[in-house]
Write a structure and sequence with these properties.
The chain is mainly α. Helices cover 51% and strands 0% of the residues. It starts with 8 loop residues before the first helix and ends in a 5-residue tail after the last helix. The model has no long low-confidence stretch (mean pLDDT 85).
Length: 83
Amino acid sequence: MPESKTRRKARRAAEPATGTADYKPLPVWYKPVMFGLMLLGLLWILVYYISQGLLPIVVAGGWNIVIGFGLAMVGFVMTTRWR
């Protein structure tokens, strides 16, 4: 039975590892802001529903839900950069 050719391992070893050289730690404030925005968005929506539209901003009306989800989504988008 014929044998397969051996692979060249020296060629793979010569390639530099990508992604590890540009690692920078996140600032100390990043995680508290990220979790804070997610909680603030949740609380904003809860306050809107519990107060039956009277709080947090009366003039915004139904847009209070969009504001709450927007705050929470900014927090969730920040999780993509969390290391």
